RNA sequence: CGGGGCGUAGCGCAGAUGGUAGCGCGCACGGUUCGGGACCGUGAGGUCGUGGGUUCAAAUCCCGCCGCCCCGACCA
């Protein structure tokens, strides 16, 4: 392909609303353009990469034995009412009416249509198990789209759904998909990790996220170097610290200190000359409307996912100021749990395991501008439940083996869920088993954000000059920079020849044949980030040579023109 | 939805105290250049987000609306 005929509008400067590195590079390199918040146009170069990812995913889905289908993006309200998500799914579900005032939505995912499709034709255990998948546009009306195509409202996804007659079959499909995902991300050339994850709004029994590792990733991952356990920090189970034996002689009596206008943990610690791990943070939530109190150490963060799981509630929200005051009898920021149970016996107090070991700590003083020092929870606070409630952080130990976690960051590119019977039961996707009884199918669902994978590839692999595509995803394999193409017939002859030879061997080439200065051509090619670069110019042609450079490397080498194609072939991954 | 910021040429920006719009990049034409985003000259390109108000006069001041971005809840 000649660049002069291709549509690659590159930009020297990124638009100011591009917020992430990959978003900036995708726009600058002419992969995408933005039409509106969270809505993108994919240009030829970007689409090529998208298709490469799609092809890899399709091949691995087929290899795993899944069958491709194509489902509508506009879906009827009735199906969503059957699953209960018409009301349960938040505002991310874009709902609308057709001319007959019938309700529809733009599909954010496809459990409903897929389950509906399957239940009509599947009636016997003899037909199970199987797995269907599709590629398609998904729409989620995100409150705040961000990070370019990584969190767009409209995005391209592969979603697969497995249906099984029993747990064993269901687990086998989960494993097949898990393995297929391993192959997909390996083939994409990624550094990645499969981690245990929270099941979130999709619901279900258990799940893994496939994280593309990148320092700029949105998610933090805890991994155990000893037993291999890896989990999103939202989920990572932490070993409770060993109980500390408290020496009664150490304990000091509680005492109130004036701390006017001091609100943050850091400020309190500084004013009172204690470290933040001595501070007991009190948080008030409403769990399905009922107020609850949570305590965590000042240097820790409460993990709402864990708290929610512990409470087994549907909705967990930070309490309003009124509720806070009502529950604690104090002002926001100055409540302490000492004596709280005595004052308000109906309120449940939950505390993170680490709070148990605080001795002579600091807590809110239950008065405006006052904190209480020498609070020792074991003596002074009636905690109902101690549990693992904190976000995993540096120094935490693996709940399974006790080794200290390592932390990395990643981008969630794929997610596998074991759904169980959540949708099949509510939507009546039943089958008849050997014993003539009807039971719901056991489902699994498996997603890969294809458009997000493209952005993730860039987040993981780039430098100051631009993108560095992993070879399997590169829009073209070879960049052929033909300097003096327009003015030197020899350059034109050899460049055309090499391009034709490469293309004849199935190697894709993008040749810059434009009548531009060399600097512009180099800069553009670096930005676009094709893995292999060949330069042909008056200079090299005079010596019967060309110049080769890998995008990842700094140094280039000279090759004879006659051997260029063969040498290049050696370097290209098959 | 709550808090903060912004909307002026394709992109990045400047336009105190109101006087009818400019710069850099990019684009077109001519010339000099030609291995890491050259230089000179000429030129095209703008309902200043939008609706209203104040005023002799509004990009500028006031009000409404819309859009976009950042911080929080969602997620592939």
Structural description of this entry:
The longest helix has 21 residues, at 44-64. Strands 3, 7, 8, 9, 10, 11, 12, 21 and 24 form a 9-stranded mixed sheet that branches. Strands 16-14-15-17-20 form a 5-stranded mixed sheet. It is of the alpha+beta class and 574 residues long. The two termini are 21 Å apart. α2 crosses α13 (450-460). It is built from 17 helices and 31 strands. β5 and β6 form a beta hairpin. It binds one RNA strand of 76 nucleotides through β8, β21, β24, α13 and α15.
Structural class estimated from helices and strands: alpha+beta
The CATH level-2 architecture of the largest domain is identified as 2-Layer Sandwich
Based on CA atoms alone, the radius of gyration comes out at 29 Å
The major sheet is characterized as:
9 strands, mixed
The proportion of residues in beta strands is: 25-35%
Characteristic key phrases:
RNA-binding; nine-stranded mixed sheet; Rossmann fold; BirA Bifunctional Protein, domain 2; alpha+beta; five-stranded mixed sheet; 28% helix; 31 strands; YbaK protein; 3 domains; 574 residues
Sum this structure up briefly:
This protein is an alpha+beta fold. The chain is built from 17 helices and 31 strands.
How are the elements arranged and paired?
Layout: H1 21-28, E1 32-36, E2 39-42, H2 44-64, E3 67-68, E4 74-76, H3 77-83, H4 85-88, E5 95-97, E6 103-106, H5 111-121, E7 130-139, E8 154-164, H6 167-187, E9 192-196, E10 206-213, E11 219-223, E12 230-232, E13 255-258, H7 265-272, E14 280-287, E15 290-297, H8 304-311, E16 316-318, H9 321-328, H10 340-343, E17 348-352, E18 361-364, E19 370-375, H11 377-380, E20 385-387, E21 406-420, H12 422-427, E22 430-432, E23 438-440, E24 442-449, H13 450-460, E25 462-463, E26 466-467, E27 478-482, H14 489-504, E28 509-512, H15 518-528, E29 532-536, H16 538-542, E30 545-550, E31 557-560, H17 564-571
Parallel strand pairs: 3-7, 15-17, 17-20, 27-28, 27-29
Antiparallel strand pairs: 1-2, 4-6, 5-6, 7-8, 8-24, 9-10, 10-21, 11-12, 11-21, 13-19, 14-15, 14-16, 18-19, 21-24, 22-23, 25-26, 29-30, 30-31
The protein binds one RNA strand of 76 nucleotides through strand 8, strand 21, strand 24, helix 13 and helix 15.
